[in-house]
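Exercise 7. Predict the joint structure of the components listed below.
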Amino acid sequence: MRLLVVGAGSTGGYFGGRLAAAGRDVTFLVRPARAAKLRETGLRIVSPHGDATLAPKVVTPDALAETYDAVLLTVKAYQLAAAMEDFAPAIGPDGMILPVLNGMRHMELLAQRFSPGNVVGCALKVSTTLDEDGRVVQLSPMQELAYGELDSALTPRMRALDEFMQAAAIGARLSSAIRREMWEKWTLLAALGAINCLMRGAIGEIEACPGGAAFALQLLGEVVAIVAAVGVAPSDGFLAGARAVLTEKGSPLASSMYRDLQGGKPIEAEAIVGDMLRRGAKAGINAPLLSAAYVCLSVYRSRIDAGR
Ligand SMILES: NC(=O)c1ccc[n+]([C@@H]2O[C@H](COP(=O)([O-])OP(=O)(O)OC[C@H]3O[C@@H](n4cnc5c(N)ncnc54)[C@H](OP(=O)(O)O)[C@@H]3O)[C@@H](O)[C@H]2O)c1
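Solution:
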């Protein structure tokens, strides 16, 4: 199997790098500036699971001519439209696209641009970032890459993908309920991102304020009501865990969207909060706290767009 990793940023660099280091056939599709950096320094991973430096196989969009068995898509939501055009030559009739993006909108866009049969489910749990020198830094030991056919079928291509992924210790896991896992992940991220960004604090800071825990639970309740109406309702076990995580005393937990917002960087607010809210509105669900978070994020985004 040959894998094309689209983007050698924090997630693509980490998972693709680990698979390449384990001897798998991995090529990175990168834009010219990242290609130049990788040629100069190699792909460098700094991680609690061990550091690594490797010379990755890279291709730039202008030189991409052949198809691959699978594409691990690791761009940000706001980079998706351009990326789809760039990696299109890599997708043949049976090619699999595994997107690590959050939310569900990208699944629809990929199915429209390619074919529904090209898109497989994927849910990623990890905390990685790129440092100022372009190194991939894994911020905590947590790592889990779940994947599966959207209809849960155990197809030959999915078995082959799983065999490929098992070469490296990256928490790779074939899931028989990937659609539910993706909705659950989005539920938690939408709630966490909205809670952090609206209140400008980590979970423990918010919990410590009068009404903080009740606010967090109310916001989670709004997201769960939307997801139950338009997606796949979360399991009881997941919900109990989400309630505990979002109200944990002293927790430093904050979403990467909140970290990006604090750092003045672009955010994935549309994919994580805006799209959830629009789906809820279509289903007639009232979500006042989530709406307030979206307004707050949209004000920030318009400042970023205006360069302020
Ligand atoms: N980081 C995490 O811990 C984490 C965890 C779970 C899920 N996710 C999700 O994973 C996705 C990726 O996040 P990330 O942290 O890996 O972002 P990232 O570090 O910003 O990496 C994205 C990479 O994609 C590259 N890229 C964008 N458009 C491209 C194109 N057309 N062709 C080739 N490369 C392209 C960018 O390269 P340039 O330098 O050329 O811009 C950048 O290096 C996001 O949707 C995020 O929400 C992240």
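Discussion. The mean pLDDT is 97.
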